[in-house]
Amino acid sequence: MKIVIGIDVGISTTKIVGIRDGKVIKPLRIKATDPVTSLYGAFGKYLYDNKIALGDVEHVMITGVGAAYIDKPVYGLPTSRAEEFIADGLGAQYESRLNDMIVVSMGTGTSLVRCKGKDIHHIGGIGIGGGTLSGLARLLLKTDDVKQITSLALQGHISHINLLIGDISAKPLPGLPMDATASLFANAQANAPREDIAIGLIYMVLQAVGSAAILSANGSDIRDFVLIGNLTLLPQCKYVFPMMEKVYDVHFIIPKYSEFCTAIGAALSYKKE
After folding, report:
1. Same topology for domains 3-81 and 98-257, yes or no?
2. Other Cβ atoms closer than 10 A to 221
3. Are residues 141 and 152 in contact, defined by beta-carbon separation less than 8 angstroms?
4. CA angle 9, 14, 16 (to 5 degrees)
5. Cα–Cα distance measured from residue 43 to residue 79, given in angstroms and rounded to the nearest whole number
6. For residue 64, which of 8, 58, 106, 252 is within the disulfide window of CB 3.0 to 4.6 Å?
7. Is it the case that residue 183 has pLDDT exceeding 80?
8. 62 with 70: CB under 8 angstroms?
9. How far is CA 32 from CA 20, 40, 108, in A?
10. 98-257 adopts what CATH topology?
11. Where does the pLDDT of residue 34 fall: very low under 50, low under 70, confident under 90, or very high at 90 and above?
């Protein structure tokens, strides 16, 4: 059986996967200075690395903000565009094996997509995400290198930055354990070390995203939230989201190919004529 290629084109990063017989073939991510270079570089490398001939490709599905720059068939192959929010939903459903959920796509900002079986639609979002982390880190840490920010954060102490329930109460409040956050950055001092600032920034972004997701489900029976996008790779996710799960009685799921879910969904959205 031939392969359907899904490509999520960002402004400088492109993610690509192949789907054959309902299975994902080795996702790949490529960075470049512009979306066209990124797409064609990713496509060529993906075919080469996986020993795929052009004739083995049935269709190419592209999505993402950078897809607007692609105005002709990729390498002469049949090429179509996938609606990004639909791709988010299909990819998250495939990876999580859930049908009903809210997909939290953590990119430069954050978009929220509700899935109820085949009903997949965008319900909103917030302007907080990876772009927020990078921008604030440039201002406060003089770097926007995610690896450096993460490395600093691993040496920081969140209690030096955030005000916790334990700081203001002698015992837990109803539904709020002692280590729950009372106020972001309220404990920060003027001479706070870079390590503490770094972990404070990451926790602030992740908690804001998690809170927005939970609030978006108010009035519904959805308790599952599937996290996708580059921010899911931050090691602090394994601490922030389990803590929010306990407080709010919800489930945050980070699937295996979380950063590639949109590209996977783009490929899955292809339907033969």
Report:
1. yes
2. 7
3. yes
4. 95
5. 13
6. 8
7. yes
8. yes
9. 27, 10, 17
10. Nucleotidyltransferase; domain 5 (3.30.420)
11. confident
Distance CA 46, CA 63 (A): 17
CA nearest to 164, candidates 129, 223, 207, 195: 207
The hierarchical CATH code for the domain 3-81 is 3.30.420.40
Q: Give the span between the Cα atoms of 216 and 151, in whole angstroms.
A: 32
Distance CA 255, CA 273 (A): 31
In this predicted model, what pLDDT tens digit does every residue of 151-167 receive, in sequence order? 999 999 999 999 998 88
φ/ψ (deg, to 5) at 49: -65, -35
pLDDT digits (tens, 9 = 90+) for 212-256: 999 999 989 999 999 999 999 999 999 999 999 999 999 999 999
Tokens of 65: 């903000």
Tokens of 127: 């302007």
Amino acid residing at 74: V
**Contact between 197 and 209 (Cβ < 8 Å):** no
For the chain, which residues make up each domain, given as ranges? Answer: 3-81, 98-257
**pLDDT at 272 > cutoff 90:** no
pLDDT on residue 273: 46
